[in-house]
Amino acid sequence: MAALKLKKGASSHSAYNLRPTFSDVEERHTLAVLVANEAGVLARVIGLFSGRGYNIESLTVAEVDHEKQLSRITIVTTGTPQMIEQIKAQVGRIVAVYDVHDLTVEGPAVERELALFKVTGTGDKRIEALRLAEIFRANVVDSTLDSFVFEITGDVGKIDAFADLMRPIGLIEMARTGVAALSRGPE
Known about the structure:
Number of domains: 2
Radius of gyration: 23 Å
CATH architecture of the largest domain: 2-Layer Sandwich
Largest sheet: 5 strands, antiparallel
CATH class of the largest domain: Alpha Beta
Strand content: 35-45%
CATH topology of the largest domain: Alpha-Beta Plaits
Helix content: 10-25%
Order of helices and strands: EHEEHEEHEEHEE
Number of helices: 4
Shape: elongated
C-alpha cells in the first residue's frame, strides 16, 4: 500500500481537529447600545443579560437625543469572545435597539467614570486625605469638621486606586456612576 505524502507545510490533522476561532479567555468589553427612549427597553436589554447568566460590571444610561427620543446604554461586561459576539447579536435583535458597538474591538476609545467618596478623619488622617485628593486631582465637594466628600473623574483604574488609598484613612461610603465611553476619532 502506498503511503500518502503530504505537501510541505501541510498538516496531518483531521478537519475535525481544527482549532476554534474563539479563545476561552474571558475579556472585558465595553458595549455602546443606541436604543429608543421608551418604557421597558432597558429592562429588555438587561433581562437578556440576566436570563443568560452574563454579568454586568458597569451600566450607564442616559438620553442622548431628545428630539429623536434616543438613549445610549453603556455596558461593561466580561466574557469569552464567543460570549461577547452572542451578547452583541442578541442585543441587536431587540426591536427598540438601533445600534450596538463593541468599543473594545472597534478601535481606541475613551472611558471615564465619576465617583463620590465620603472620608472621615481628623488630624493627620484629614491632612493625608487632602494630600491624596490633590495628587489624584479629586475635588472637595463637601466638608465638615470630621469628614469630606471628594469627587473624582477618571478611568476605572484611577477610581479603584483612589478607593484603595482612602480605605485605611477613613473611607466610609462611595457612589460610582459607571463607565461612560466614546470611540476616539471622527467616526
